[in-house]
Design brief:
This protein is 41% helix and 17% strand. By secondary structure, it is of the alpha+beta class. The chain has a three-stranded mixed sheet with strand order 1-3-2, sandwiched between helices. The two termini are 27 Å apart.
Length: 118
Amino acid sequence: MSGPAPDGAGHAAKAAFEAAGVRDGHVAIAFVGEHEIRELNREHRGKDTPTDVLSFPVDGVGPTQGPRELGDIVICPEHTEDVIEAIVHGALHLCGYDHETDDGEMLALQDRVMEGLR
């Protein structure tokens, strides 16, 4: 499955990047079906299940010359309750945040970004 991004997708990504201190860069957002997200999750994370969102950073974290190539956000709408929140979540992962290893910083920042978008 693929299709156009929902209204507000670009604004959501921009808000997340700005909240993380990233002011300039390129990102791709793809919407895929359950089969493709499951394959990506299995290949890249060793989890043989579909998921809502995956992020694939390109440049990594730190200073760069010119705009960063932030990476790709892949979303499976069938497994996502809120596509805008999935975009914010994926964007924060591209900025180096990891809710599986931090002490709640990423999800707190995600909540602040989402509140600002409402």
